[in-house]
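ok trying this again, last paste got cut off
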Amino acid sequence: NAVTNPRISQHGYAKLPNGLVIQWGEGSAGESLSWTINFPTLFPNACLAVNVNERNASGWGDIGGGNYAITIYGASNFTPSNFKVYCVQNTSGTNTVPVGPTAFSYIAVGY
């Protein structure tokens, strides 16, 4: 049993013999709170999980006074064809604001 029809590229996927599908990609978030990201291929049944990460450390900058702005990513609204990525920046420990543009990567698992 082998991986069938893999697409090995910047935005790709692999279909495993047991029906599990792993997809990955990257993008750039604009200056709104959320964006819809389309998968490279449809999951046949459902997307089970998505992990989103900052692609570079530019969101961890010193904003003065020993305070650091930390960029926080999240994903929700999984469908077989897409998901929503959310990005905010915590600038004071209690204040979060939409941030962009920032680069991100993701990996998704489904079947």
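PB: full thing came through this time. The chain has a mean pLDDT of 81.
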